[in-house]
Amino acid sequence: MLVNMKKILEIAEAEGYAIPCINTPNEETVRAVIGAAEELNTPIIIDHAQVHDSLIPIERIGPIMLKYAKEARVPVCVHLDHGSDYEFVMRAVKVGFPSIMYDCSALPFEENVEKVAQFVKFAHAAGITVEAELGIMASTDEDTHDDDPEKRVLTNEDIREFFTEPAEAKEFAERTKCDALAVCFGTMHGIYAEPPVLDIDRVKELREAIPDDTRIVMHGASGVEFDQVQNAITAGCSKVNYYSYMAKATTKFVADKVAETDGKIAYHELQEAAYEFMKGYAKDVIKAFKNGK
Ligand SMILES: [Zn+2]
């Protein structure tokens, strides 16, 4: 069943756990993630990232995501991840996404507030939920920093300056009325240079400061020890984005499979095996974020 994010975040809040949000840049991943959620009878969020649009445009993968979501036996939210251009965000609206992240976090505070508040008005009238971001999520993604490899090595100390301030988060949520807010407290996008250390007290302070109807989102969870993710969830994160390490693990699985069969495995069999592997991986992620519930 296709839903917007409000419904799913309400379930997460009531149950005291977090719902994973996983990138699904091809049909196998869409099937694997929704299949995992169905087997565990839990709601799930699948998303398309603007940075993946050069790989597969939203007009091609979006209708596939929406079709599987509608047919699913559990609530599935189809979400746009990090839409940073208004034009791109409107493409997601046109394709029929019921949930959109409008990320203006690179802009000064006032501009971020104004742009998000204006979009929320339009989106809520159309039944679309909105996620925003405050504080800058550092990124080690090659596609963001391919020009300067130095920038891809960020330490835990380096990223403290990007952390979200609770008082600003409160004002932001009150003025924009966004449904979800991505905040920074120790994670980053991509592959970590050293084991990340999350500031759990910061999550608690943020949760206390932000109005209840804006749920807290953690990005860049893959690569963080599950224990730390669980502490962040207990402290108040309701949606947790996860992807990079699942993609890496699947690449290794596929490489091993090809080696194991001496390259004799047919491509369609490889694809199906990768689907089963990703489904198992997604199930582990969902279970970890449910904190044993
Ligand atoms: Zn993110």
From TrEMBL:
Binding site for Zn(2+) 2: D103, E133
InterPro entries in the record: Aldolase_TIM (IPR013785), Class_II_FBP_aldolase (IPR050246), FBA_II (IPR000771)
Record has Zinc as a keyword: yes
Keywords: Lyase, Metal-binding, Zinc
Active site (record annotation): D81
UniProt keyword Zinc present: yes
Cofactor note: Binds 2 Zn(2+) ions per subunit. One is catalytic and the other provides a structural contribution.
Pfam families: F_bP_aldolase (PF01116)
EC annotation from Swiss-Prot or TrEMBL: 4.1.2.40
Cofactors, names only: Zn(2+)
NCBIfam families in alphabetical order: cbbA
Name assigned to this protein: Class II fructose-bisphosphate aldolase
Organism: Anaerostipes hadrus
